[in-house]
Write a structure and sequence with these properties.
31% helix; elongated; 650 residues
């Protein structure tokens, strides 16, 4: 075997700095504790325990005479505040690159932006970042979860968004996430690529090494985020094993491997990497001594049986099938139909060369040396076990709608088709379910029949739960004058109902426009997104009255600013009454021309002089904007004209 170690394997700057700080404190004497394991490496943690360094998971466990070291992952702002109150001495070993993220999210959230964090929501680094945000923040693991966050929050209704990443985030997944941003989400104003350069370099080096290796060995703690990501990126290119130290190497299978690559996570000391390399050399010698032709020949004639569950290594993939080495004289073939239940996926989308897979033997042809195999059947078996467990734990599952069937739809979850009745899709009775096909949906199981391997789920129950959670959140924060953006869900004769996020409020027809309107549909339509404010709310009855009209659009305020008593203007007759006519000055503001002010003579019937739609010259004689009363006169202009004529004649 040819063994090669990646250039950038092992301790990163931040981890190396943190460990040195711990050992420096030990040398000073006194009692030392770390806030959680200093790094995710059992060997290092074990050595520190031998030196009486205690691990505390909660500040309440800290003794008054202990010095606390904050690990490189960083902590939330609340931890600093509590420590200041407690008075304990603490040493901040937070990685400078993590501290930079804390500063970014704090500044961006104070500026009113929503923060999106690429990473593992359960990782201590991400938990710390979240607690430095001063407003809304969301964590996403990959591009699909990023899409769901935007969709669920209606693209954040125009709010600005800033994005950061966990320092050990997978660079390949990050690039995939960022590729969807420019065209899809226009309100992302800031993207901070905060993946540690050492992490990025380590992943890139590991990928290059994996591409030319038959097997990769990734060394690091089982709970180390960056080590797990190294394993994932390497596993895409060749068979990959994750070990914590050299003791685990003897359990691994290196048969048929000539080029072995080794890399290590940021929390792996150099001495452990060296031990692994030395142990690999010993394994190489043992393999050369133990393998002989007779054993290999016996293996090649090993019997397999129809229905048997076996393991195989993918040695080739084409457009219609995958070719498998199953360790016998047979060549194994998995057709596209036996690889997956998803007809849209090609074999290369499901398996890759070098990958070890569990299979079921469907058919054996000893004469031709061919074994027909199925991966799908194994996936279904494993997937149904997960389905049964999810039912017991009342978990919400993610799946893709595969097809429409009589009475409902089939949703693929972990290779298992879950039936969702039409009544549980959340769609109306007459709605077409075809538009759901290929869509990702969340379902909750309502019935599982293990004997028949049948499961029934509901999209509606998930939607109900989301709505109830949104309603709870709304009523906790709702107050009069609060402004919301919501979608018009229904329209009646008396107003429009607006979805405020799981809760509907009503904008009365009188609140939709300053103009006179007969029906809300003159102003809004279904699907419109409105900016509204709460006028009144009653938490006991659940009723919410909304306002939509804006003061600056009030035509009476526009009139006040632009017109005065004595102005001569043009107005349009809009209605006629026995006592006069109403004329429109501007949209939404009418004035009255009393019958006595229509002409300089007696008028018995207004309609003899004026008609609706007629444009006339009038003079503003009286104005009370607060009472919305304006008096107009045509007669005043006629009298002025007559006076001017008499003066001219004289």
């Amino acid at each position: 075997m040819n063994i090669e170690v990646a250039k950038s394997a092992g301790f990163c700057f931040g981890v190396d700095r943190a460990i040195k700080m711990v050992y420096e404190e030990i040398e000073k004497g006194g009692k030392v504790a770390t806030f959680g394991p200093i790094i995710h490496n059992k060997n290092v943690v074990s050595d520190l325990e031998k030196k009486n360094v205690r691990i505390v998971d909660d500040l309440s466990e800290l003794n008054s005479d202990e010095r606390l070291i904050l690990r490189s992952h960083g902590v939330g702002k609340d931890v600093y505040d509590t420590l200041d109150q407690m008075g304990n001495t603490y040493i901040d070993a937070t990685c400078p690159f993590v501290a930079r993220i804390h500063k970014i999210v704090e500044e961006q959230s104070k500026a009113g932006k929503i923060i999106l964090i690429a990473g593992d929501k359960n990782h201590p680094e991400v938990e710390g970042i979240v607690k430095h945000c001063n407003g809304e923040c969301f964590v996403f693991a990959d591009d699909e979860e990023l899409k769901r966050i935007f969709k669920k929050n209606l693209d954040f209704l125009g709010k600005k968004v800033a994005i950061v990443a966990q320092t050990t985030y997978n660079i390949i997944v990050w690039n995939k996430c960022m590729s969807i941003i420019p065209d899809t989400y226009k309100n992302v104003s800031e993207i901070f690529q905060t993946i540690c350069n050492a992490t990025s370099t380590r992943q890139t080096d590991a990928i290059e090494l994996a591409k030319k290796s038959d097997v990769m060995v990734v060394i690091g703690g089982k709970h180390s985020s960056n080590t797990i990501k190294l394993f994932n990126v390497c596993n895409k290119y060749c068979r990959t094993y994750h070990v914590e130290d050299s003791d685990e190497l003897f359990d691994l299978d290196f048969a048929g491997a000539f080029n072995i690559g080794i890399t290590a996570g940021a929390s792996t000391p150099a001495y452990i990497i060296k031990e692994v390399i030395q142990k690999m050399a010993e394994i190489q010698n043992n393999l050369e001594e133990e393998i002989n032709f007779a054993e290999a020949l016996e293996q090649s004639f090993k019997k397999i049986h129809t229905g048997e569950r076996i393991k195989g290594i993918i040695v080739g993939v084409n457009n219609s099938e995958a070719i498998v080495d199953i360790g016998t004289k047979h060549t194994g073939f998995i057709s596209q139909a036996e690889l997956t239940n998803d007809p849209t996926k090609k074999p290369a989308d499901v398996v890759s060369v070098g990958e070890e897979v569990d299979l079921i033997v469907i058919k054996i042809n000893d004469q031709d040396g061919i074994a027909t195999l199925s991966k799908k059947k194994v996936d279904e078996m494993l997937g149904f076990d997960n389905i049964v467990k999810a039912m017991e734990e009342e978990k919400i599952l993610e799946g893709t709608v595969q097809r429409v069937v009589k009475g409902g739809i089939i949703v693929m979850v972990d290779g298992v088709g879950v039936f969702v009745p039409s009544s549980q899709t959340g769609y109306g009775r007459d709605a077409s379910l075809e538009e759901l096909v290929k869509q990702k949906v969340s379902i909750k199981l309502i019935d599982v029949m293990p004997q028949r391997r049948r499961a029934v789920g509901s999209i509606k129950l998930v939607q109900k739960g989301i709505k109830e959670e949104a309603q709870k959140k709304f009523w906790e924060t709702a107050e009069v004058d609060a402004v919301y953006r919501g979608e018009v869900k229904s329209i009646t004769n008396y107003g429009a109902f607006v979805d405020l996020g799981g809760v509907d409020g009503m904008v009365h027809v009188s609140e939709l426009s300053w103009k006179r309107i007969k029906h809300p549909s003159e102003v809004v339509k279904l699907g419109d997104v409105l900016e509204v404010y709460i006028k009144e709310l009653n938490k006991e009855t659940g009723r919410i009255s909304l306002g939509y009209k804006k003061t600056e659009d009030n035509p009476w305020e526009q009139f006040r600013a632009n017109y005065n008593v004595g102005d001569v203007i043009k107005a349009t007759i809009v209605s006629i009454t026995p006592f006069g006519a109403f004329a429109s000055i501007i949209d939404g503001v009418d004035g009255l021309i009393h019958i006595s002010q229509i002409a300089n003579r007696r008028v018995d019937n207004v309609k003899d002089v004026l008609s609706i739609g007629q444009e006339v010259d009038v003079k503003i004689t009286e104005c009370d904007v607060d009472s919305k009363r304006i008096s107009l006169s045509m007669r005043a202009l006629l009298e002025e004209n007559e006076a001017e004529t008499e003066e001219t004649a004289e």
